[in-house]
Every structure is written in structure tokens, then in C-alpha cells.
């Protein structure tokens, strides 16, 4: 059998090594991986400009979380909307997030009713799945609305 033929692993026999080595190791650069806590993430200098302008803390937090470009686009859109922009100021009223969650819960109750599930079982499901305690009477009112 010829050297290196039909053999595995280190048992290849006499095989010549190249003199140049791998070469690719000579082009390694520093790590560009982001730290787990986001320490390597670059801070947008426009955040400082927004702070200097007196931007509210809520909007600064939104810019940090979603990006300054997102905030600027949102701001531009709100400023252009006649219902939101009045007398040189942008003013918006948001419903509380819990109202959205309540809306979703009520759609879920409607779906359960449409499947033929009774109020007592619906109460149990809401308690188990959503951690919410709702009276049977409240469920019946929701059913009558729909």
C-alpha cells in the first residue's frame, strides 16, 4: 500500500508539509463581537444633541432602545399630522397598554364562547393561562355585548 492511501487520521505515513503555513492567521484582527451587556455597542452622538435640546426622558429612552433614526422618523411623521401637531407643538395621547391587553383578553373570551365553552370553564382558562380573575357576571356581559 502506498504511503497515505487508505489510512485515516495521523497514520498517513510520509506526507510533505508546505513551508508557508496557513497564512490566514496573519490577517486576524481584533474581535468585533458585541459584549453580552451591550458594552461594545456604539452610542449615537445625536442622543447628546437631543438631550441638549431638552428632549423628554421618555423619548430619549425610546431613541436609545429603537434607534435615533426611528425616533426622528416618528417625530417627523407626528409633526406632519394635523391631528397631532397644533400650535407648534406635537401632542399625543396614548391609551394605556393595559387597555390593549384587555381588548385582546376580551377577543379571547369571544373566541372561547364561539367554540361553545361556558362561563365557568372560561373563568378557569383565564385564571390558568392569563393569571386573571374575572367574575362570571363580567364574562356574561362581554358575551351579551358581542
Indicate the proportion of strand residues.
under 5%
Q: Which sequence of strands runs across the widest sheet? A: 1-2
Distance between the termini: 84 Å
- The computed structural class is mainly alpha
General description of the model:
- The chain has 146 residues and is an all-alpha fold.
- Among the domains are: 46-90, no CATH class; 97-145.
- The protein has 6 helices and 2 strands.
- It has helices spanning 46-53, 57-66, 68-80, 97-114, 119-129, 136-145; strands spanning 85-86, 89-90.
- It has a two-stranded antiparallel ribbon with strand order 1-2.
- The longest helix is centred in the C-terminal third of the chain and has 18 residues, at 97-114.
- It starts with 45 loop residues before the first helix and ends with a helix.
- The relative contact order is 0.05.
List keywords for this structure.
146 residues, two-stranded antiparallel ribbon, 3% strand
Amino acid at each position: 500500500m502506498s504511503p497515505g492511501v487508505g489510512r485515516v487520521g495521523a497514520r498517513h505515513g510520509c506526507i510533505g508539509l508546505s513551508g508557508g503555513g496557513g497564512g490566514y492567521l496573519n490577517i486576524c484582527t481584533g474581535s468585533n463581537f458585541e459584549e453580552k451587556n451591550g458594552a461594545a455597542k456604539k452610542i449615537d452622538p445625536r442622543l447628546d444633541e437631543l438631550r441638549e435640546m431638552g428632549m423628554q426622558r421618555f423619548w430619549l429612552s425610546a431613541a436609545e432602545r429603537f434607534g435615533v433614526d426611528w425616533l426622528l422618523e416618528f417625530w417627523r411623521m407626528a409633526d406632519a399630522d394635523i391631528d397631532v401637531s397644533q400650535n407648534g407643538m406635537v401632542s399625543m395621547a396614548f391609551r394605556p397598554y393595559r387597555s390593549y391587553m384587555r381588548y385582546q383578553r376580551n377577543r379571547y373570551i369571544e373566541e372561547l364562547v364561539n367554540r361553545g365553552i361556558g362561563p365557568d370553564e372560561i373563568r378557569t382558562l383565564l385564571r390558568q393561562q392569563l393569571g386573571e380573575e374575572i367574575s362570571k357576571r363580567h364574562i356574561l356581559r362581554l358575551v351579551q355585548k358581542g
